[in-house]
Amino acid sequence: MKGNVIVGQSGGPTAAINSSLAGVYRTAKDRGARKVFGMLHGIQGLLEERYIDLSEHITNELDAELLKRTPAAYLGSCRYKLPEIHENMELYDKIFEILNKLEIEAFIYIGGNDSMDTIKKLSDYAIVKGHSQKFIGCPKTIDNDLALTDHTPGFGSAAKYIGTSVKEIIRDSFCLEYKNGLVTIIEIMGRNAGWLTGAAALAQGEDCQGPDMIYLPELTFDLGGFMKRIRALLAEKTSVVVAVSEGIRLEDGRYVCELGQTADFVDAFGHKQLTGTAAYLANYIAGEVGCKTRAIELSTLQRAASHCSSRVDILEAYQVGGAAVKAADEGDSGKMVVLNRLSDDPYQCGTEVKDVHKIANDERLVPRNWVNEEGTYVTDEFVTYVRPLIQGDVSPVMVDGIPRHLYKPGYLGQR
Amino acid sequence: MKGNVIVGQSGGPTAAINSSLAGVYRTAKDRGARKVFGMLHGIQGLLEERYIDLSEHITNELDAELLKRTPAAYLGSCRYKLPEIHENMELYDKIFEILNKLEIEAFIYIGGNDSMDTIKKLSDYAIVKGHSQKFIGCPKTIDNDLALTDHTPGFGSAAKYIGTSVKEIIRDSFCLEYKNGLVTIIEIMGRNAGWLTGAAALAQGEDCQGPDMIYLPELTFDLGGFMKRIRALLAEKTSVVVAVSEGIRLEDGRYVCELGQTADFVDAFGHKQLTGTAAYLANYIAGEVGCKTRAIELSTLQRAASHCSSRVDILEAYQVGGAAVKAADEGDSGKMVVLNRLSDDPYQCGTEVKDVHKIANDERLVPRNWVNEEGTYVTDEFVTYVRPLIQGDVSPVMVDGIPRHLYKPGYLGQR
């Protein structure tokens, strides 16, 4: 390459998105890019001309290794959807003015569905207007819901963290005996796609029975049937553990997490209280069955736990970043890098590029036949699909007992 | 030793309590114990004659290593306080009948305050009645609130997990920018003692600013002052992260987590909803300031995360288990093993035994001068005290991408 590269991160952060950033940087430099800029807070920050020169941040190989082990989005992220081209041409002109000023040759955007929409629109605009920049998308989302790619970087590390944590919670749940039993509800991210919730099944093995039930958002949640199964399980064992997606809904379309929220409830200070799916179900079961219940939200940690990341995931994220630069350098635009699985065992996976028009704004859900007939657990096919993605570790660089991250003070978060 | 040993686990489980169990087993065997029994669910299970022969569970050195890496209480735990001796002598006679039948020479109980109360009562009763069994306590609690010991096994691993997770959450919190800022409230265990909440300060280092504020339960929580600081911080930075103990209370004695609960609020199905300290504060701040807020409960994971345990902690837990057996074998009874720190740097720590009468039912809190004057952060002395306890890792034994635990099917959890 002869010009410069600019890279941005967009959407929800993950434990692997910075490894893709490291891959973009390394490959761009290897291919001769003069400068590699990082837009701060994605396209939204770029519009305000907020960016950094990445070579001031990644100064040596150790920095690059630390970046791979740093969770969240190093450059900051955004949830910003570009308007349709005809709605606001001025905005597009402004973006290209900035790109021209920075002598950008390749624009790499690491993100999910909405981010691929950005790539699509910018590459379309460039073609129409005759701009020479190349626009390539780099997949990233813990939700694993992007079309046309076997899986997405970020998912494997989140799945490994979920499998590990669910197993530890199950172990904990058998310690104390309660007269009427204990039901633990674990709430897992993924509002529409159940890939992460299904990963709770990874806890199951020779040394762990795994969760008793798993409820994905793809299927209607039947509260009556659920309660019947809870009662049956409690008759057999002292502790029942259930993994539920935050997005499970009743037949009438209401989210379970909405059931506990009434508009007229305010607390002592006049504020409305909100509750989660797990909290709602735990309270409901306690009331109906009279057993002890616990609600556990894996929350932000499932997307930020670099200390428990998957080696396969971190390396693939890096590889995908490099492949994005390579594609742009070879003249591709309006494409996303996809992961193409060749075999499960031994696991083999390569990269390709595919037309971003076929990916943006689409959503890949767990197939119905990867969930059992009753809708209460994922099948072996599901586990066979996920298992290779959680293999291996990336040892954290421990400094004084805590994992070290890459960080330069002052570039993010100040008013 | 010539007779048998029996060991039990009591109170809240931890990531290190099974390492103490491994230490008890190994030392008992090394000192010639014929059998080492494990009571299931502590003294409560023993009263129902529920116990196992540990040699059927720990069959080789690999089993012992896995046990050190297995979270929660391998034997099951209980929260059972023995009655005063004069209230129910029959109960005590029943216990000693069982101990005599099993030819027990040493009774080791791994637990916290209430468990030490059990050791105290049983050893008192044995002396009064002329029974020959020796009773020794082995400290365990993530809360670190036992008297006379420098710290307690289980605390170091929980502190390491908290420091690591809080750091990852802080990293995550700077990714997305919100117009009026983002406030993240992290709720940490420890109803009365702030040791765990203070451990959030471990996130602070060259590569992380750490949480902005830390509120321990030892000090009165001033909601007005808290809100003033939140507003001041939001004027400076886009993301504010606060660690709070689940047990913080207002001046009038009410727990903050009680503020969001009104007796007359019931959900769509007629059940009362409960909310936590972090959830309450996050909702309150959102209402008052109009910023984005998040509530994160570290919940059960902070006591069960063996995948992120401290090597110092796991080895000390093992050592303390062995020291308990040694003390009993040498004729001590009514004692607890304590950890005695000789120096911070290099960290040196040995074991001693102390009279359990001086430990049981007492509670060690964070000293006032280890919190800053405003009551919003722990001091350097606090961090210097905790830092050595989180050093080093115990690599999980990974099988197919997930940590392996020790488990024999069928001995726990069935009806």
TrEMBL record, chains A, B:
Q: Which reaction(s) are listed as its catalytic activity? A: beta-D-fructose 6-phosphate + diphosphate = beta-D-fructose 1,6-bisphosphate + phosphate + H(+)
Q: Which residues of this protein are annotated with the site description Important for catalytic activity and substrate specificity?
A: 114
Q: GO: which molecular function terms?
A: 6-phosphofructokinase activity; diphosphate-fructose-6-phosphate 1-phosphotransferase activity; metal ion binding
List UniProt keywords, sorted A-Z: Cytoplasm, Glycolysis, Kinase, Magnesium, Metal-binding, Transferase
**Which residues are involved in binding Mg(2+)?**
113
UniProt activity-regulation remark: Non-allosteric.
Involved pathway(s): Carbohydrate degradation; glycolysis; D-glyceraldehyde 3-phosphate and glycerone phosphate from D-glucose: step 3/4
EC annotation from Swiss-Prot or TrEMBL: 2.7.1.90
Q: Which InterPro entries match?
A: ATP_PFK, PFKA, Phosphofructokinase_dom, PKF_sf, PPi-PFK
Name its GO BP terms in alphabetical order. fructose 6-phosphate metabolic process
List residues binding substrate: 141-143, 189-191, 246
Homology family: Belongs to the phosphofructokinase type A (PFKA) family. PPi-dependent PFK group II subfamily. Clade 'B2' sub-subfamily.
Q: Which NCBIfam families match?
A: PRK14072.1
Reported function: Catalyzes the phosphorylation of D-fructose 6-phosphate, the first committing step of glycolysis. Uses inorganic phosphate (PPi) as phosphoryl donor instead of ATP like common ATP-dependent phosphofructokinases (ATP-PFKs), which renders the reaction reversible, and can thus function both in glycolysis and gluconeogenesis. Consistently, PPi-PFK can replace the enzymes of both the forward (ATP-PFK) and reverse (fructose-bisphosphatase (FBPase)) reactions.
* Family annotation (PANTHER family): ATP-DEPENDENT 6-PHOSPHOFRUCTOKINASE 1
Record HAMAP family? Phosphofructokinase_II_B2
Q: What is this protein called?
A: Pyrophosphate--fructose 6-phosphate 1-phosphotransferase
